[in-house]
Amino acid sequence: MGSRTKATFSPPVMQARRWIEGLVFSADQPLINVSQAAPVQAPPQALRAHIAQVALEVPEAHMYGHVLGLPDLRTEVAQQWSVAYGGQISAAQVAITSGCNQAFAAAISSLTQEGDEVIVPTPWYFNHKMWLDMQGVTTVPLQTGADMCPSAAAAEALITPRTKAIVLVTPNNPTGTEYPEGLLAAFYALAAQRGLALIVDETYRDFDSRSGAPHGLFQHDKWDETLIQLYSFSKAYRLTGHRVGAVVASASRLAEMEKFLDTVTICPNQLGQYAALWGMQNLGDWLAGERLEILDRRAAISEAFPKLERRGWKLLGLGAYFAYLQHPFDCSSTELAQELVTQAQVLSLPGTMFTPEGDPNGGQQVRLAFANVDRNAIDVLFARLCSYSDKKQGDLRA
């Protein structure tokens, strides 16, 4: 018998983890894991101390909270976002969710019914595709260009009477590409004109290489009639295990999402919300340092990539936590990614996990998530990829 969950594929990160089950890596050749885009370190000591203090001294932090989130945190997001984006955002237009994935799920549940369509650029974030599958919503792929950016004109050609939303992720997962302000403005104008929701997932906004606001969408007088913004505190403050995200939308849209949120989790994790609030109010300088470290790792990849380029690889996208590559081999990226585990001690994700089944582009692409590898590890990573490439190309010539 069929089911909602059987309508989609297995979680890609879990698939990749199974590739290393039972394998033993030597001390002088340890596994370099560039498969998952999440910090593996604990939050900074001061934030952990605050969480402990709240756990001991704030009894209500252990009770059910507001379905749409801690009021003080909603207010803080509204105030900081209004300044950052130069727009007007109220606390009533902010909800806190159990991670950014839940924010997406709640938004889609409030917008669609079975048989509706949502336009999503490819390569796409696989959890977005999985949720749409499980809701019986058709994911309409929007091919990106050579610069890994989607086109609003191409998206317009895909709109049908069943289209309910367009989804953009910037900085992008999986490609790392930072969408230009003009691109976002064009998609906003298209969505507003056609009566669609524009969902903009800015999970990695804190690691954008550009200074200032990445877009001016919140400056529109009636932005909340079109725009739904998603965000994650997990990446900013290393709160992955606490599951704290946010969604910014109209109060009426949040009222619809509230039905979903109340049914699924009742309220977001309370300790995580207090942690996110404290982080926003006290860790600005620390977060700025985290951003600079990620930008330095991005620079390290740019500096190292010519070594791979000489071996036929192409760098398709780079930014936030990600480098997105095109490999030169006559094999699927799925096969390549598994070979890299045993022959180069590198765990990465193939482009087939980010593209529609049968898409030839996915078979030539690989994602490297470098959030947890510093400059030295990046040097080792590229040395291994070069060595693997030389051997594979030598084997092909033999």
- Count, helices: 13
Strand order of the largest sheet: 2-8-7-6-5-3-4
The largest pleated sheet is described as: 7 strands, mixed
Looking at CATH, which topology of the largest domain would you report?
Aspartate Aminotransferase, domain 2
Mean pLDDT: 95
What is the N-to-C succession of helices and strands? HEHHEHEHEHEHEEHEHHHEEHEEEH
CATH homologous superfamily caption of the largest domain: Type I PLP-dependent aspartate aminotransferase-like (Major domain)
Q: Compute the separation of the termini in Å.
A: 49 Å
Shape, please?
Answer: globular
Q: For the record, what CATH class of the largest domain applies?
A: Alpha Beta
| Poorly predicted tracts of residues | none
Describe this structure in words.
- With 398 residues, this protein is of the alpha/beta class.
- It has 2 domains: 150 residues, Aspartate Aminotransferase, domain 1; 239 residues, Type I PLP-dependent aspartate aminotransferase-like (Major domain) (Aspartate Aminotransferase, domain 2), CATH 3.40.640.10.
- The chain is built from 13 helices and 13 strands.
- Strands 2-8-7-6-5-3-4 form a 7-stranded mixed beta sheet, sandwiched between helices. Strands 9-10-13-12 form a 4-stranded antiparallel beta sheet. Strands 1-11 form a two-stranded parallel sheet.
- It is globular and about 60 Å long.
Could you name the key traits of this structure?
single chain, 398 residues, Aspartate Aminotransferase, domain 1, Aspartate Aminotransferase, domain 2, 2 domains, 13 helices, 13 strands
